[in-house]
Amino acid sequence: MLRIFDRRRTANCQGFHRRELLRVGALGLGGLSLPHWLAARATADSAVRAKSVVVLFLGGGPPQHETFDPKMSAPSAYRAMFGEIPTALPGVTFGSHFQELAKLADRLSVVRCYRNGLTSHGPATATVIAGDNPTKAMLGSVYARVAGSTNAQTGMPNNVILGPASVGASFRGNPDYTQRLGSPGTLGPAYRPFDPSGGGELKKNMELRIDRRRLDDRRALLTALDQLKRRAETERVFVGADRFRQQAFDVLLGGVTKAFEWEGEDPRVIARYDTSDIKVPQAVLQKKNKPGFAEQSPEALGKQMLLARRLVQAGCGFVTVTSTGWDLHGNRFGVDDGMPVLGVAADRAAAAFIEDLERLGMSDDVLLVITGEFGRTPKINNKAGRDHWGRICPLVFAGGGLPMGQVIGYSDRLGGAPAADPVGVPELSATILHTLLDAGRMRLNTDIPVEIRQTVDRAQPILS
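Above: the chain sequence. Below: its structure as tokens.
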């Protein structure tokens, strides 16, 4: 237990003493303290690559036509409702709301032959985010089981999920995809993703107990952390501790707090990510008059992606960013009123992320994956929407040191199925896991569950 004390002893109305400025547990996960986790990580490092993955999950099922496969040669009831725009790749077009990503198409790999065959939100979401692995754990949890729950150098959790509430939005999204996407499966709650907006074992062990007025005083908090660090250095607090216990102390005072601080970020970078102006129009809200509809607003998405960049920069291995509202039947959003809101926000946030990584020299270090739980029907329905469709789904990659500037596969005439050589969820999970892990060394590591080793080996990556 790590505490920073204030000399004042007055208790607030909740019964907490203001002298407890910060209480950080020993990061006990599954009954093990952080030093034990660091020791375990040291034995697994040989299988872990110096890479990170960020999944931008478009919850609800993004339409393939209005995103990355417009099919403008198809009849009007099928082709992209808002038309197409040219991209940086000759002869390749995107849906017209993806202007920023179109300019960056030479940094993307667009897959037009991906399918999973699923059409129910819950099972499809669980299958895609888990890569259909036998443990049923999301791939971020699988990665954390191999790499360790925290980064040994910075203390950053290795598996984080970022919904709208993680950046201060007053809602979590409707439905709450932080719950749908966050299952640790049979690996257990120790590997549940860290959700900065609340919940999870790691969150419980990093409790901030501080008077509201003091909570706003970030400078006082950081000063207290610095004082504790200096005292440890001068008084040799950890004399006799083994190197993992010393490292545990170091990481608790390391990059975790800094990664969640915005003050040092360049205002121009923040402005580039900003999607706060992209809101569901009042006329649409009033017309649909559906409970929870306002919670499908993408105005927080830019900040979610900026926080994802800050986390991978601080050593997080796997970040899942949720965007909801993509269930474009026409019940809430249809294609007609959904794409001008959701599409523009996803385009801006993803493009800003790709450009930011390039600016920082991190493009090869981070793989961005953009997808959802399934696609949408090739034919537009009578509510100006598209319905659930599992025969083809949007999938885009950027970065990670993998081959970019290409379109992989192609769909049929109406954009309803792969025309040839389809790829599925096993190939998607292989692409992600081979980016993060060394498959050859994984085979030799008997400390890793056999289900995970088999998952890494069972399919060929889409990109290699």
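The first helix runs from residue 34 to 44.
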